[in-house]
Design a protein that fits this description.
alpha/beta; Aspartate Aminotransferase, domain 1; Aspartate Aminotransferase, domain 2; 7-stranded mixed sheet; 4-stranded mixed sheet; 15 helices; globular; binds ligand KE4
């Protein structure tokens, strides 16, 4: 594959944008190559400036569950843009979105729209702190909740990939209020409650972690967190920015049958446009301004254009439940194909998958916690990534991310992906 145009664009971009990208996860530093500059998408395919075609499994980091250039979303956007882009005033479409979310996710009785997953999680912990009048939060090493100050301590995703899980620039006073526990380790949480119980406002976690690669929470772990937070008058916040509407229509909480106090959304909820949301129990959400004292605001929150894209996506998913059966079937085929190839190539690798989000880890055994994730061979992942890209398969450029199957990946895509995986693994063996 040629990347001449992307390479010159990257040099130009680096003059004006830090690292040439508007989000570090896109920089391709860890996979040792220039990021292709994308220009077009159609269904399961994306195309870069040099005309290379890829089967896309990054999916804009999750939102494009219906694939690229989806007609229903496009028509919804066109109709909205023909009337107005935005007012900074309430619109009926925002009620439609709020009602739909509360219908799809029963634990959400009230919801506030924001513009990113980071805004959703930042707002949710401020609300938790204001509601409980406590300062500390518990997060888990390897979990990523966006770039809010309270979260960039032992964070996952791009922070982990770049080797800076705890970012400079965060005052000690803030960092000291973030307690770190170990994912899937209830004892580590119990110990923090024993020590700080009367000052812990909330526990926040990815119910199925995608940001250290895919590592699902164990049922017992989640149930224990629910009980510990209840016993200590703390809130349980599920960060479903990635898992919401992805692993099931009603998210990971419907798979685990856990009712959180607050849930954070992003990605799919915007259908590819910048949207986030947080919501939960009415008595808690009624503490949010302007009816309550806890302030949170946003110029473009609930923007009609973004709402149209989100509504078109959620309504399509809600009225076509077979989409999730198809996602499970296709994702399982990919997983099984990869496992066959791992076995036959003799490469040390393991796969974690929940529905249409999965990760191939270059380590062996059961990858069920951050310590085991960290044993992954990231240089092997980089070689694997480059081989898959050369075969026209576009994966996340990091071992510590999830890849996503969309509703429009076809049999040919799946066969090509499994073949490319086989080639890449044998090149490593
Ligand atoms: P945003 O602020 O990037 O919209 O959402 C932050 C966020 C919060 N919670 C979870 C569980 C998330 O996965 C994210 C964002 N995910 C990363 C990829 N793993 C976004 C990619 C990027 O940073 O460019």
């Amino acid at each position: 594959m040629k990347f001449d145009k992307s390479q010159s664009l990257f040099e130009e971009a680096k003059k004006y944008i830090p690292g040439g990208v508007n989000s570090p996860a896109r920089a391709f530093k860890e996979v040792g190559m220039t990021p292709p500059f994308m220009v077009r998408g159609q269904n399961s395919k994306i195309y870069d400036e040099d005309g290379n075609e890829y089967i896309d499994y990054v999916s804009s980091w999750g939102p494009m569950i219906l694939g690229h250039n989806n007609e229903v979303i496009k028509d919804a956007l066109k109709s909205q843009i023909d009337t107005a882009i935005g007012f900074g005033a309430p619109t009926a479409i925002e009620i439609e979105m709020a009602k739909l979310i509360t219908k799809i996710v029963p634990s959400v009785e009230m919801v506030r729209m924001v513009n990113s997953g980071t805004e959703a999680t930042m707002s949710a912990i401020r609300l938790a702190r204001g509601y409980t009048e406590k300062d500390k939060i518990i997060k888990f090493a390897g979990n990523y909740h966006g770039h809010g100050d309270s979260f960039l301590i032992q964070a996952g995703s791009g922070a982990l990939t770049s080797g800076v899980p705890s970012s400079p620039g965060i005052p000690e006073g803030i960092a000291n209020n973030t307690l770190i526990a170990n994912y899937n380790d209830s004892t580590s949480v119990q110990e923090l409650f024993n020590k700080y119980g009367d000052d812990i406002a909330a526990v926040i976690l990815e119910p199925i972690c995608g940001n250290m690669g895919v590592v699902p929470a164990k049922q017992e772990f989640l149930s224990t967190l629910r009980k510990l937070t209840e016993d200590n008058n703390s809130l349980l916040i599920l960060d479903e920015v990635m898992t919401g509407f992805r692993v099931a229509l009603s998210g990971a909480q419907s798979l685990y049958k856990i009712t959180p106090d607050l849930t954070c959304f992003g990605k799919i909820i915007g259908g590819g446009l910048p949207v986030g949301a947080y919501g939960g129990k009415r008595e808690i959400m009624e503490k949010v301004a302007p009816i309550g004292p806890i302030y949170q605001a946003g110029t473009l929150s609930g923007n009609p254009v973004a709402m149209r894209a989100g509504l078109a996506t959620l309504n399509t998913l809600k009225s076509n439940p077979d989409i999730y059966l198809k996602l499970e079937e296709n994702s399982k085929r990919i997983e099984e194909g990869f496992l066959r190839n791992i076995k036959e190539s003799g490469i040390n690798a393991a796969i974690n998958r929940v529905s249409s989000m999965m990760t191939l880890f270059f380590t062996d055994g059961c990858v069920d916690c951050f310590e085991k994730v960290k044993q992954s061979d990231t240089s092997k992942y980089a070689k694997y990534f480059r081989s898959m890209l050369e075969s026209g398969i576009y994966l996340p450029p990091s071992q510590f991310e999830a890849f996503f199957v969309s509703a429009v990946h076809i049999d040919e895509d799946i066969e090509r992906t499994i073949d490319a995986n086989r080639k890449a693994l044998f090149e490593l063996s």
